Amino acid sequence: MVNKISIIGSGRVGESTAQMLAIKKLTQQIVLIDLDEKYAKGVALDIQETASVYHFDTQLVGSNDIANIQDSNIVIIAAGIPRKPGMDRADVLAINLKIIDEIMDGIIKYAPNAYVIVVSNPVDVLTYYANKKANWPRNRIMGQAGILDSMRLSSFIAIETDYSINDIQAMVLGGHGDTMVPLTRFTTISGISIEHLLDQKTINQLIQRTRDGGAEILNLKQKSSAYDAPGAAVTIMVEAIVHNKNRLLPCITMLKGEYGHTDLAIGVPVILGGNGVEKIIELKFTEQEQQAFDTSAQAIKELIGEI
């Protein structure tokens, strides 16, 4: 357990994340920051009132003053405008970039020793910007996406096959969007690649559904995008850091020559532990996998070029 985790953005993703962090007993205090102070306080109080059910002693605080993140061990950025039906992640870039810029000013001032997890979209570009803004070691600022996309692929495989989700492990790298790179060679059911268990047509359908995973939920809900699965994905990352688990997970991190790219934030396999991104794992891609990864990298670089 750490002393303090702050979540900037008390919307549905922030709220879901706070609830899961409290249930997991990962921190003594959770601070929820939002422009709407009453809303942030309401979210904090609502979760606090579940303590007797989930048996946590974590204190939850809501505020609109970013100074309250003072000395946080971990800061999660979930602020920004969400997508609406018909929008893609890039459509929210200009607005969310301004929001991230102000947030990073606050983090640099009040929580200069924190690990930072970016959730806001387009997460690849905003993780890149956060790294450039802070100019901290790259192990301390990372983005969440690959875990969520891998969770979605695993779920769709379980739905399709009726096999237990407990035996399914997926690996999705690259950008968080249409150019994501699901690696079917490394997506397994009890260690057996799905390439040996499913026909190519079915695999292609599962990959496409994973790429459309966020949009599918958005189109069904209409009034909100996904938040429970993103909150769970962030919680996995926080737990790996807090408990120094050294988990091998797909996370967005800055590359310095790995996979043939530099000055780029993109989803790759990392060891996530007590020092944040402890190590980047470089897989030996096939020519086709490398091409897909390069295509994804180029799409992110084009968005970076806009900022």
What does this entry look like structurally?
With about 300 residues, the chain is α/β, with parallel strands linked by helices. About 40% of the residues lie in helices and about 20% in strands. It has helices spanning about 10-25, 35-50, 50-55, 95-110, 125-135, 145-160, 200-210, 215-220, 230-240, 285-305, and strands at about 1-10, 25-35, 60-65, 75, 115-120, 140-145, 170, 170-175, 180, 190, 190-195, 245-255, 260-275, 275-280. A hairpin with a 7-residue loop joins strand 8 and strand 9. The mean pLDDT is about 95.
Q: Can you give me a brief rundown of this structure?
A:
By secondary structure, the chain is α/β, with parallel strands linked by helices.
Strands ordered across the widest β-sheet: 3-2-1-4-5-6
Separation of termini? 37 Å
State which percent range the strand residues make up: 15-25%
| Mean model confidence by pLDDT | 96
Question: What global shape is seen?
Answer: globular
Structural class estimated from helices and strands: alpha/beta
Helix content: 40-55%
**Beta strands, count:** 14
Report Rg: 19 Å
H/E topology pattern: EHEHHEEHEHEHEEEEEHHHEEEH
Q: How would a crystallographer describe the biggest sheet?
A: 6 strands, parallel
Total helical elements: 10
Low-confidence stretches: none
Give keywords.
14 strands; alpha/beta; 42% helix; single chain; 307 residues; six-stranded parallel β-sheet; three-stranded antiparallel β-sheet; 10 helices
